[in-house]
Design goal:
It is built from 17 helices and no strands. By secondary structure, the protein is mainly alpha-helical. The protein is globular.
């Protein structure tokens, strides 16, 4: 039996063990990263509903641009995973460096968007006060886009070489630091000034810088032979355009999905601050559970990239089935929680003395019920995307994403929310419809490609 045969024929339980070994730290890292944003929402929700509404839009504004730029970091992961399987250390180093280059260039280009976000939000129909608050937040927190994208590149590199434990620990340190700084700077605790929304922005910026310093320090100390930062100023145009060719479609794909949720936040803003606050709570809860699926999808990307490097189609297909089933099981558990205890979950975000607590909880319960419905399709589409990225297939998934989210999802949200007057629930059903189309089309694409690889 050849080495490839021995890898291809490992039983399902070994696939589960390997996926968990690689995926659990990635899941934990995503949850810890998400905890940074959730901490902002929780503490600002206790500070004031106005601040919660502002940070909901500000976080979405930042995240839309960040997620577009992180396409280059996401491209690093399957490329390095495949190169790692081929023991091509030189190309691994070149790929990672050019991922850092592209991320920095992108950050510089989009920085003015943070400084003039008020005008942009006013054009999108937001209230004057909310738009002003968002801009005051982003003029501080927006600088964090530079270290944040650098962190994403280094995390992708470390995940691709299966050093995921450090990814988890760095993100946990960041999440803990963010919580402490928020507690001090938002409310004025421990002798710090009470800065409210701006205090949260300062905390976010500090944490992004700290994260980059820590993870870059780890790479320098633990992997000196890789020389990731040696002569980092020198271009490598072949690697540059390889990462760009893969990363730009990934960025547009992620932008299309994130833009779908950003559009829903804008439409919620048209319904009023109560609906926007309820949307922010429901979105945070949904996004928290989505981090599980995203971590598993990252593990799927790495393992698919490794299998592609070894030309091992049987291993690829079997691993895809196992990891998809694991994601499905967790989605079912999430649906049960959203349907059975929505008031408890929503109550975490609100001061018991908040005068609008009752109406926000009532609106949030409806949104969580709908969110439970699209957990399945959301998990399916992100898993298919992760597998396709492992195969370095990004252009067609980008086209599928744009069609599903913007030709199907956004119009359905608008029609159901405003034409049929279903309000927030209608907007969220539209999201589910767009995600369902993406899951079906991308899943079909993966099956088609693996069949072609097997026949070849």
């Amino acid at each position: 039996m050849t080495q490839q045969d021995s890898v291809s024929n490992i039983p399902h339980r070994q696939h589960v063990r390997a996926i968990l070994t690689l995926g659990l730290p990635l899941v934990g890292g995503h949850l810890a990263q998400f905890a940074i944003g959730m901490t902002d929402a929780l503490m600002l929700g206790w500070y004031s509903v106005d601040a919660l509404a502002a940070v909901t839009l500000a976080s979405m504004f930042f995240f839309v641009l960040f997620i577009f730029g992180s396409g280059f970091a996401q491209a690093v992961m399957p490329l390095v995973a495949s190169q790692y399987a081929e023991s091509d250390e030189l190309q691994m180093r070149r790929t990672t460096r050019m991922g850092l280059w592209l991320s920095f260039v992108f950050a510089v280009v989009i920085m003015p968007g943070f400084f003039f976000s008020e005008a942009i939000l006013l054009l999108l129909g937001q209230s004057t006060q909310v738009a002003s608050d968002v801009q005051s937040y982003l003029r501080i927190a927006g600088w964090g886009i530079v270290p944040a994208l650098g962190v994403m590149v280094l995390k992708s590199y470390l995940a691709a070489i299966e050093r995921t434990q450090v990814v988890l620990w760095v993100t946990l340190i960041a999440a803990g630091t963010n919580a402490l700084l928020n507690y001090a700077l938002i409310f004025g605790n421990w002798g710090a000034p009470e800065l409210g929304l701006q205090g949260s922005a300062i905390a976010s910026l500090f944490v992004q810088i700290l994260s980059f310093v820590v993870i870059a320090g780890y790479v320098l100390r633990a992997l000196p032979e890789q020389q990731i930062f040696a002569r980092v100023w020198r271009p490598d145009w072949d690697a540059f355009f390889l990462v760009a060719r893969l990363g730009v479609p990934i960025g547009f794909t992620m932008l299309a999905e994130t833009g779908l949720f950003a559009a829903s936040a804008l439409m919620m803003g048209w319904l009023g601050e109560i609906q926007l606050a309820a949307h922010g709570i429901a979105l945070n809860l949904t996004a928290a559970t989505f981090m599980i699926h995203l971590g598993l999808a990252n593990a799927a990307t790495v393992r698919a990239g490794n299998a592609m490097g070894r030309k091992d189609v049987a291993h690829l297909k079997r691993g895809a089935k196992v990891i998809s089933l694991m994601s499905l099981v967790f989605a079912i558990l999430t649906i049960a929680a959203f349907v059975l205890i929505p008031e408890v979950l929503i109550g975490w975000f609100l001061d018991p003395e908040e005068p609008n607590r009752g109406v926000i909880v009532q609106a949030g319960v409806i949104l969580l019920f709908v969110a439970g419905i699209f957990q399945l399709v959301d998990a399916g589409q992100v898993m298919a995307l992760g597998l396709l990225r492992g195969l370095q297939d990004t252009r067609v998934p980008m086209q599928i994403a744009v069609f599903s989210y913007w030709v199907i999802g956004v119009p359905c949200s608008y029609v159901l929310g405003f034409i049929f007057d279903f309000g927030g629930a209608g907007i969220w059903v539209g999201l589910a419809i767009g995600l369902a189309f993406a899951a079906l089309l991308m899943g079909r694409r993966f099956v088609k490609l693996t069949a072609q690889m097997a026949s070849a």
